Amino acid sequence: MPAATDREAAERPVALQPSGWPRPKGYANGMLAEGRLVLTGGVVGWDAQERFADGFVAQVRQVLENIVAILAEGGAGPEHLVRLTWYVVDMAEYTDNLKTIGEAYREVIGAHYPTMALVQVVRLVEPVARVEIEATAVLPARG
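Below the sequence we write its predicted structure tokens.
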């Protein structure tokens, strides 16, 4: 991948792909961005009435929809995401559902793949939660 120009980085995040490295599937090795940050806390898979979606993939979809709603409040969209950190209570639930998670991701976020980390944890604050995601987005600098 050619190096990102300063103008591209100022307008929207650019994935960084070192020469000779295998292209990652569903995430980026790194992102280059410049501007204003939009950060979320750990977002879980419940709706506005704090009702959890039923099942792991349904919770993933709801988390992603919740992240998009939070980004919109800050004037950002999924295309501004530079990092997602996923916390799951069961790694097998994640790996056993990769195809349907990918489908839900593309339906909600689109074909934009920021850097991502996936961590298995003993439990989340909300006992019913199966997944929690933190998001970081970068908007172009005002100016």
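The longest strand covers residues 131-139.
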